[in-house]
From TrEMBL:
Gene3D superfamilies: putative rabgap domain of human tbc1 domain family member 14 like domains (1.10.8.270), Ypt/Rab-GAP domain of gyp1p, domain 3 (1.10.472.80)
InterPro entries for this protein: Rab-GAP-TBC_dom (IPR000195), Rab-GAP_TBC_sf (IPR035969)
Any one GO molecular-function label of the UniProt entry: GTPase activator activity
Organismal lineage: Eukaryota, Amoebozoa, Discosea, Longamoebia, Centramoebida
Pfam families: RabGAP-TBC
Coiled-coil residues: none
Ranges of residues in domain Rab-GAP TBC: 1-213
Source organism superkingdom: Eukaryota
Protein's recorded name: TBC domain containing protein
Length: 285
């Protein structure tokens, strides 16, 4: 039995993680690099592991060395290949937060449970139909999952409900929703490196998310945008990059705003929020 903190134990309970299997994890690790060291997936993992955030945090670098993060990610892909789960940028960040909170084996099984049962469509290798819009200039060439396209659409709808003035203002700029993709894939575990934000703030936000649902990821992002409202409204540059304006990460403020937003969101829209991580929804109407 592994030695988990109280928070780690609570996360495992909230996510309904089955018993960890040391032998199973060892066998997956023994398979080595996913699809071999020359595979695109393995190359991307190596690249992303080397640039995972929070490296200025001594506690993070001690708990989450590159080798450990790489092992978990490769083992995850081996484990989930038959379920159609693939690697996307941002998965390294999600895995690193679990590793920050709990021992490696527990982190692997908790990450696997979260990915496969609470937000599987975010990481499915195939997506439903055509994208709602073509990639824009500057967008990374990693295809988004259908659920993330749905999340970006829902984010836009929620912002329009909770702050129509800011939503209208942003329509006048060449800001595109795809800029929020990194926040969706990482479940908002991204903060500006210069902000000095502690990873513990992200962990606190995830406490709330695991208690009430992964769908709140979208409202967390809306809250972070609205937190930067005044700075956004004063920007005149047509190429305004809203994610770059998201400042210090304060979990308590984000949670308070999210709770407020839940009261404002129409029931039909909120139901789509709840379902979009696990069910393919029809947005044609």
């Amino acid at each position: 039995m592994t030695d988990c903190s109280l928070r780690a134990q609570v996360w495992k309970i909230l996510l309904r993680v089955p018993a960890v299997d040391v032998a199973q994890y060892a066998a997956l690790v023994g398979k080595g690099a996913f699809k071999g060291r020359d595979s695109e997936e393995y190359k991307q993992i190596r690249k992303d592991v080397g640039r995972t955030g929070f490296r200025k945090n001594p506690a993070f670098t001690k708990r989450v060395p590159d080798a450990k993060l790489s092992r978990v990610l490769n083992a995850l892909l081996h484990s989930c290949e038959s379920e159609g789960i693939g690697y996307v940028q941002g998965l390294n960040i999600v895995a690193s937060v679990f590793l920050y909170v709990m021992p490696e084996i527990d982190a692997f099984f908790t990450l696997r449970q979260f990915i496969t049962h609470h937000c599987p469509l975010y990481y499915k290798k195939t997506q439903k139909g055509e994208k709602k819009e073509p990639p824009k200039e500057g967008e990374d060439n990693h295809s988004r999952s259908w659920a993330v396209d749905a999340a970006l659409y829902l984010l836009d709808q929620c912002l329009q409900v909770v702050d129509p003035g800011l939503h209208h203002h942003l329509k006048h700029f060449t800001t595109h929703l795809y800029l929020y993709t990194q926040y969706i894939y990482s479940f908002n575990a991204i903060v500006p490196l210069e902000s000095g934000t502690s990873l513990d703030e992200v962990v606190k936000l995830w406490d709330f998310m695991f208690a009430f649902g992964a769908h709140l990821n979208i409202l967390f992002t809306v809250a972070r945008v609205i937190k930067a409202r005044e700075e956004i409204l004063h920007k005149k540059d047509k190429n305004i990059n809203v994610p770059q304006l998201i400042g210090n990460f304060d979990a308590d403020i984000i949670i308070d705003l999210t709770v407020h937003f839940v009261r404002l969101i129409p029931l039909e829209l909120y139901q789509k929020l709840v379902l979009h991580t696990t069910e393919e929804l029809d947005f044609s109407s």
